[in-house]
Amino acid sequence: xxxxxxxxxxxxxxxxxxxxERALRIYGRPVYVRKQIVHNIHVVRDLxxxxxxxxxxxxxxxxxxxxxxxxHGVAPEVYENSQSRSLQVIDATCPLVTKVHLEARRFxxxxxxxxxxxxxxxxxxxxxxxxxxxxxxxxxxxxxxxxVEVPDPSSVSYLSQTTLSVDETNRIIAVLRERxxxxxxxxxxxxxxxxxxxxxxxxxVAKGSDVVLVIGSDNSSNSNRLVEVSRALGTPAHLIxxxxxxxxxxxxxxxxxxxxSGASAPEWLVERVVERLRGLGAGEVEExxxxxxxxxxxxxxxxRESDEARVRAGAxx
Length: 317
Known about the structure:
- By secondary structure, the chain is an alpha/beta fold.
- 41% of the residues lie in helices and 16% in strands.
- The chain has a 5-stranded parallel β-sheet with strand order 10-9-11-1-12, sandwiched between helices. A 4-stranded parallel β-sheet has the order 3-2-4-5, sandwiched between helices.
- Strand 9 (211-215), helix 9 (221-232) and strand 10 form a beta-alpha-beta unit.
- Helix 8 runs parallel beside helix 9 (221-232).
- The termini are far apart.
């Protein structure tokens, strides 16, 4: 068995989950969370058991209550709606997603048509599109890159969802550059470091495995991309939420099983999958590391130590 490294939680997911847990400790139950804080059903259920209430829209949150915004980012109207309902907003948006939002605003101010590379309906794409809806056109694949039309080919820019396939995104960008030679790029790649690292790691694991198991939920974009990366190299891969979804038939004839996890899957799920594979006959476990990660993000307003001290002082007075 080969374990990919890096795998599992990225800095943005770790921060977002921590934000909800801190909010529950500081403000008490319940704390409302708009959408899934991260795209993993086990994480959501765990936080629900601790007192979090997940809602689809901020308009469902009782007036004056505390609401945490998910790691995927939101459109400006969400902040406006929250303010009108006197909600205490704690913004757990990943800073790397916030960077894309800021880039969208800048390109829009310059009058540029923004070609947003991403998957229609994904929460991150919805949030970014909301920053400049009149300027943004969504490009979902290479074919759409070949056919998308813009009013002024000399005033075009591109951005991308942070959790896409690196290789596929580069193919789309190549087509856009060919069609629009003057297209502006973001100052730095939008695809996040963790997405890149996990795809690099699964490539190496797939090369030495007969089958790869990717731990992650169906709605996790980065987890689905890991499955695609493995399959593109010719190694069968399966997305599983946990060890109960392992089909022993996938392992028939396999001498080496590769295991990785998406950026929103906790490590304890990996441990459960490893134990299940051992029960099915897997032997030695080897970790294959392609890089180390040391990224960390500061906490947002509302859940910092100073906020906790202020709330406690208020309760004591």
